[in-house]
């Protein structure tokens, strides 16, 4: 820890002494129309290659031009990015300085501890410890600590939150100190929601400085986060991806990330989703296609007329699952729908007008029907009209199965050797086994394939009003027809933010979900990261005694064996 602090401290001192050189691209600095703000205009480079660059690469280019000091960021780096169509094929390293950092409480606590340790070291050396602060805005959202100990009752939310505070008193106390001790560090308290949804609804700037009255330097919002699903923000046209703790700390201290200039896979969407197909069906199909293509270490950029037919929540769903399909980003450019979303989520009209003015002037606004950028290799295509209802599993998020094929797929899987990603290696004779048990005075039975855990959870799906309202309507219709969820099934609802709870309540759809056992258990990751709490002992022992292959049905991102219910 101390050695790391020393190295960073030395680098920062070195940088301060060298980086006073004038920016060689000062000619690009100019006023932005009548907004009263300023920016580095990429068109002033006078380079025809700019027009052909993917939107996501233009974000890297703008950062290099604005931060060029011939020490950390050199003129040659700007040339390498402009020359992307060639340099992206040859493992070329470039520096990138993200505008901000987001952390969640699992990975963020060590970062705050390191900053506290650096202050201690500074004090020991006789310096002013108050000088040690993050140099870029940092937001830490507490969402990983809440567990679904209680479910299926109206007190679940309150009781789970009480337990969360009891278990994490020391951590929360430390973070609260950090929020007041450091400049540039905001802590979003527990119970607020999932980091990526809070990022979309509340933290994202889209263009940095756009919320200022006048005289600000405007530049594209970008970030790194210490959580793999940070990529969700790419759906709003903000470049962002997950990194490790040390990299995040370096960015917090104003250092550039060194990254390989990535290839960009173009993914053209056309048409619109048919009735009955959801964003979840779409993202599972995209994940399956992109896994086959192989996009590890690459950006994926979605474009084409189909994007205009997707709501912002649908785009965020696709961007969120980048880690599951292997890409560094799943990027959607900003268009009119993105601007509408900013207004819907409470950003001011002036801010949104500045965002639009900047992106249009900079050639970063998504114009449908304009000339398409150049992409790496063949362009992938998907007609949204071909999407059908599907699930993924049983052990990997990219093993897509159409709902119509599910019974057959599961039955075949029972006989398949367990070394297969589909197999459970159950003897033919054992496949029809039924285990009777009693639960709260009633008799029930379990067999292979019985559902024992059902969770509406995850930053991916609970942030999407389309699928959440769909779940509420389905619950209402099921309840009205007298259908019930067996009482031994552990059901829970953990929305990504309080907004979800509010609109379900307003639409009178929270009650039908509760009637089926889906009470809000907390605002956080919960079941999606294995914080599902225990199954009832009667159910657990029935499963173990009969050695049954039972199922969890969830709207989370990952279904690796042992993850959903360790």
UniProtKB/TrEMBL annotation:
Q: Which InterPro entries match?
A: Acnase/IPM_dHydase_lsu_aba_1/3, Acoase/IPM_deHydtase_lsu_aba, Aconitase/IRP2, Aconitase_4Fe-4S_BS, Aconitase_4Fe-4S_dom
Identify a single GO molecular function assigned to this protein. Answer: aconitate hydratase activity
Recorded hits in Gene3D superfamilies, A to Z, give: Aconitase, domain 3
Catalytic activity reported: citrate = D-threo-isocitrate
**Keywords assigned by UniProt, alphabetized:** Iron, Iron-sulfur, Lyase, Metal-binding
**Coiled-coil region(s) at which residues?**
none
Source taxon at top rank: Eukaryota
Cofactors:
[4Fe-4S] cluster
Q: State the similarity comment.
A: Belongs to the aconitase/IPM isomerase family.
Cross-referenced PANTHER family:
ACONITASE/IRON-RESPONSIVE ELEMENT FAMILY MEMBER
The record's listing under NCBIfam families reads:
PRK09277.1 (NF006757)
Q: Name the chain's protein.
A: aconitate hydratase
Taxonomy of the source species? Eukaryota, Sar, Alveolata, Perkinsozoa, Perkinsea
